[in-house]
Amino acid sequence: MSFRAYDMKTFLVYPEFALNLACFESFFWSENQHLHKPTTWYRLKRSIYVIITIILLVHICAVTASAFVPRVTPEAEAYSPSDSKLFEVLAIVSYFCCSFYKMWNIFWRRDDISRVMEELKALFPSIAKQKRLAELNESKERKIGSGGIYRLEYYEEKSRAIMQFITRYFMFAYVAYNSIPIMQLCFAVITQQEHITYRAQANAWYPWHNHNDHSSFLGFMLSYLTQAIVEYTSITFVMSGEFLFCFFTTQMLMHYNYLCSALSALDASAPDAVKQLKALISYHTHLLRLSKLINSIFNLTFALDLIITTFAISLMGLAIVLVNFADALMFSAGFSFFLLLGYLFCNNGDEILRETMQINSAIFYSNWYEGSPEYRRLIIFFIMRTKTPCQYQAYGYTPLSMETYMRILKLSYQMFTSVRAIE
Predict the structure, then answer these.
(1) What ranges do the domains of the chain cover?
(2) 3-state secondary structure string across the chain
(3) So what's the pLDDT on residue 75?
(4) Whose CB among 59, 130, 343, 362 lies 3.0–4.6 Å from 260's, allowing a Cys bridge?
C-alpha cells in the first residue's frame, strides 16, 4: 500500500476556497504569510470584500424598509397580502443576518483563529511520525505499547465529503433561487401576456422603486443584479463560517481519536509507562484548552444560530404556505438551508461529545492494573478528569448535540402550528 503524507493544508482546501470566494483575506499564520504581502490583488480583494459587505447591509435595510412602504400599484397589492408580508420580511432578514454575523465573527476573532491555527499545526503529526504510524497500520494485529494511530485519511475524506456536499448544495440553491424570476419573465414573454410584471427575487425597497413589481425592465435588472450579488455574498459568508468550524471540529476529532487509541495501547508495565501517561495527560490538557478556545470563538454564532434557526424554519414554512407557487419554491430553498445549517453545527457538537466520551473507556480497559502505584494514582486522576466529556456550548446555555437539533425542530413546528391556528 502506497504511503501518502498529509499536512494541515490538506484539510484547509475548502475553508480557504470559501474565504477566497468571499474575498476575505486569509488568516495570518506561518503557512500563509506570503499571502499577506501588499500586492495589487491583495488590495483589490480587500476592496471587494468591503463593497459586498456594504451591499449586504444595504439590502438588509431595503428588505426591512419594504415592510413599511405602502403598495402603490394593484399588482404590488396583489403580490403580497398583509398576513404573509411580515413573515416574508422576517424570513428573508433572518437569512441575510445569519450570513452577516458569521462573517463579522470571523473578522472580529481573526487573531484568535490565527492562534488556533498555529497550535493545531504544532500538534499535527510530522511526516516521520506518519510513516511510523503507517507501518503500524499495515500490521493487522496491534500490540500493547505500540502507540496510538492517527486516522488522517478517514477524517480528511470525511470532512472533504461533507464540505463538498455543502458546496454543491449551495451552488444548486443559488442557481435555482435566482433563476425563478428569469423563468417567470420568460414565461410571460412566451405566453404573450398583455401586461408583463417584472418581479425580482425578494421584495425590497430601492431608490428607483418602492414595490416589488417594477414598471421598467431597467429597474428590474438593477434590482435583480443587486439581489444576486447579495445572495452570492450571503452564501460565501455562510460557507466561510461553516467550513472553518467544520475544519476545527475535524482536527479536534482526529486528536481526540488518537488520544483514545494511545491510551488503549499504553503498556502499564513498561519502565517508562508513567512518563508516557504524563505526556498523554498533558496532551489531553492541551486539547481541552483548544476546545474551550474554539468554543469561545464561535460562542456568538452558536447562540445566534440556535435562535435564528428556530424562528427561521417556522417563518420559512409559513411563507411557503401563504404565497404563490413560484415564491414558495424560492422560500423552500431557505427552508432547506436552515434545516441543513442546524444539522451541521449540532452534528459537529454531537461528534465531539461522543468522541470525548470514549476517552474514559479507553483508560479503563487498558492494563492499568499492571502499573506501579504512581501510575494507578494518575489513572484515577485522569478518569475523574474525563468523567465530564468535552462539548460545544452556546454561552453555557445549551450544548450542541442532535438532541438540541430535535428540540429546534420541535419548537419550530410548534410555532408554525400556533400561528396557523390563529389565522
Answers:
(1) 9-422
(2) CCCCCCCHHHHCHHHHHHHHHCCCCCCCCCCCHHHHCCCHHHHHHHHHHHHHHHHHHHHHHHHHHHCCCCCCCHHHHHHCCHHHHHHHHHHHHHHHHHHHHHHHHHHHCHHHHHHHHHHHHHHCCCHHHHHHHHHHHHCCCCCCCCCCCCCHHHHHHHHHHHHHHHHHHHHHHHHHHHHHHHHHHHHHHHCCCCCCCEECCCCCCECCECCCEECCHHHHHHHHHHHHHHHHHHHHHHHHHHHHHHHHHHHHHHHHHHHHHHHHCCCCCCCCHHHHHHHHHHHHHHHHHHHHHHHHHCHHHHHHHHHHHHHHHHHHHHHHHHCCHHHHHHHHHHHHHHHHHHHHHHHHHHHHHHHHHHHHHHHHCCCHHHCCHHHHHHHHHHHHHCCCCCCCECCCCCECCHHHHHHHHHHHHHHHHHHHHHC
(3) 42
(4) 362
Dihedral sign for Cα atoms in the order 35, 36, 37, 38:
positive
pLDDT tens figures, 1-24: 566 778 888 898 999 999 989 888
Q: What is the phi-psi region of residue 23: left when phi exceeds 0, alpha when psi lies from -120 to 50, beta otherwise?
A: left
Q: What is the pLDDT of residues 360-373, one digit of tens each?
A: 888 888 888 888 88
